# Entry
Amino acid sequence: MMQTPLMKVSLLIGLITVALFYLFSPFEHESKKDIVFGCSAALTGPLQENGIDYTNGILCGFKAFNEAGGIHNRHIKLRVLNDQYEPFITGKNIASLMLDPDLFGILGVVGTPPSEEALKITARTQVPFLMPLSGAEFLYNYPYHHVFTLRPSYVDEAREMVRHMQALNIRKVAVFYQNDSYGLASLYALQQAVRKTPIKIIAEGVYNRNTLSIHYAFNEITKASPEAVIIGGALKPTVEFINKTAKHDPKLKFYTFSFVGYESLNKVLLSLPLNNVSMYMTQTVPSMNKKLPQIATFKNLYTRYHPELQPTSIAFEGYLASQVIIEALKKSSHISRSSFMKSLSTLEFELVDRQMIRYSDTQHRGLRNVYLLKLNSPSEEVVDE
# Structure
């Protein structure tokens, strides 16, 4: 029988599925090689600072562990591919990484659209999908039993913003967000957070991802005269929007989600004439100025491995992710994917700032605390923790 093009494609997909099932079967033998994790992150483009910081943080933890001998004389490796924060590239990267028979899982994908794409692929074979840099709600909903998160969700972050806004008696808010799954996740988070509160969302302003086209959003939001604006955007459009909108209404208050990166945003804002504008950012890790042993260790390691770079909160989050992976491997009965996943599913230890990691078969959420920091401040001023 002659094969049609559709039959050939179906056959190819079937062969790939069988190959991936074989590669990631739970009945694998104990690994004798390096312990390999794969990652897709933006190393160039508008989100490159997030991608570089997060992966550097993970690598910082792995490198220190490897220098101390690793585990059973094996080293942990992270193979990072650049996706430029473009989901279609993420998909190609994840598919490529998953062809490695030594792969233990996908770790540290950066951003919501890339995480959404990676999740679709890993879900087909239940390849471990670990600690993405995203707080989108779909990552916290089961039946995704192969997903383990570290950071609190965007809903958790939005609730902290709402708590602070209520204390200031703010009632009318607007949302500025990018038109992708990250922006929609930010909008959804705020919608959930304001439920059963007096706060109302009175305007929305959208801009195109990977652009600075904020004028439509500016017009939609300013004509509604909100008291505060919640921002779910990337660094440069966030700066453009705050600078333009604050000049229009200096009394406006601004709140941003942690993904934009505290140090990067604060540095740019300090260079602008916005001295009297109130701006805040939620954070999923403690302030880098807090006297904690984990922060001190991280700063020392980061300065040693990356003397040209500033230790950031996103890099610290990556470092914490590496510590969770290391702890799970140390508690594995032997070095295999299945043993690692069993260990991860029962992991319980104090990670940072008296916060426990308590994973179980039905609970894969990591940290719970959300911190609120003041932006446009020379020091990392904590408003609430």
